[in-house]
């Protein structure tokens, strides 16, 4: 069965936008670090984040809002290519499209009657999806996704902001102070915020034990662990990008050969290197 998280839209909405770190044996030190100020993105910056995520995922094309990769058993939808599994899917990855739908439902967004947070993807496989690509149903889905880009952007940002506590809890206790400091350095600049937002949407938080190859993950947690030092300012986003390249190279090396993940390396690297650019 697909992994459908218990993190519902209602819970997401209730989470504060600034999340403190979990407790460790050095509670006083951690609390001081956790209280470091994070910037708040302006409406203009959030719109730019949404456009960049859309550009990163599918070149900013409307057709790219409905996608199904070769060799995968699920659709990838919206600016962030949220995953939607057909009935009977057995996937290790987190299914995010139902979470997005619940988020929008709770905010009064109207969507087609054949969609919903509790519904499976109506296309059973990529072949059926591609045969239907120009159908009225698929066109309706694309238009819905196009008009809800601001909601999708807010959802992606909120998921990233809610991830800090989970990431720190999943990290070894001896590494939590360092990881917390690196997170805070990243959230102090627009570029670092975008790096965390985009990578969280791109490769996840790194806290799901099922998202591993040979015991090694590839999410935000693993990139924060891979960073060298704790740079500040825009250098933090630059080091995050370089660490992500190393983590993704390890993923490709450890992946089952049948997945042929090396075909994605160039695109993945180009994407994370953009974190070095001004927002």
Notable characteristics:
mainly alpha; three-stranded antiparallel sheet; Lipoprotein
What does this molecule look like?
- The protein has helices at residues 9-14, 27-34, 43-58, 97-105, 126-131, 136-147, 149-161, 163-170, 176-186, 190-203, 220-226, 234-254, 265-273, and strands spanning 66-67, 75-77, 82-84.
- A hairpin with a 4-residue loop joins strand 2 (75-77) and strand 3.
- Helices cover 50% and strands 3% of the residues.
- It folds into 2 domains: 40-152, no CATH class; 162-279.
- Helix 2 (27-34) packs parallel to helix 9 (176-186), helix 10 runs parallel beside helix 12 (234-254) and helix 11 crosses helix 12.
- Residues 1-36 have low confidence and may be disordered.
- The protein has a 3-stranded antiparallel sheet with strand order 1-2-3.
- The protein starts with 8 loop residues before the first helix and ends in a 6-residue tail after the last helix.
- The chain is globular, with a radius of gyration of 18 Å.
- It contains 13 helices and 3 strands, in the order αααβββαααααααααα.
- It is mainly alpha-helical and 279 residues long.
- This is Lipoprotein.
